[in-house]
Design brief:
single chain, three-stranded mixed sheet, three-stranded antiparallel sheet, 6 strands
Length: 152
């Protein structure tokens, strides 16, 4: 688990090293994504929930990923320019966020007929089916309907 005080120190140091003082760092309340580069506000944010769950190396890679975005601008995406800059500043590649979410904060918990758990942060408004039970099917499968309940 990363110490959030250390994460802030690392982020501020990376911003000073690779960007300028018009950029800043903050934690956000995201529960399904690790980091974000906001070009309008010139802010790099990291999920406080995921940062508190992950180890130092994962968070450091997330910070490098976002700093690289800030360095190349919004039009670069994850293209060749971004990849070159990210590699040059120490990003080792790959996706830093592999689907782990802050599920313990989800307000809605769903279970399919085969007992796979699903989490939602907003009340589900549509009937959904479990994609684990019907891999490869790209749509609704009525045999695997998820039953939702509010977390107490």
């Amino acid at each position: 688990m990363a110490d959030l005080t250390k994460v802030r120190v690392w982020a501020d140091a990376l911003i000073r090293l690779h960007l300028n003082d018009t950029w800043s760092f903050a934690f956000d309340n995201a529960k399904t994504r690790a980091g974000l580069t906001n070009y309008t506000k010139r802010t790099i944010t990291v999920s406080r929930y995921l940062a508190s769950k992950w180890d130092d190396d994962d968070i450091h890679q997330t910070l490098l990923h976002e700093v690289a975005h800030a360095m190349v601008g919004p039009k670069a995406g994850h293209g060749p320019e971004w990849r070159r800059v990210a590699r040059d500043i120490g990003y080792i590649g790959g996706r830093t966020h592999r689907g782990e979410i802050a599920s313990e904060t989800a307000k809605w918990i769903g279970v399919c007929p085969r007992w796979h758990e699903h989490f939602r942060f907003r009340k589900p408004t549509r009937i959904a089916s479990c994609m684990h039970c019907a891999p490869g099917s790209r749509g609704f499968n009525p045999r695997y309907v998820i039953r939702w309940r509010a977390r107490r």
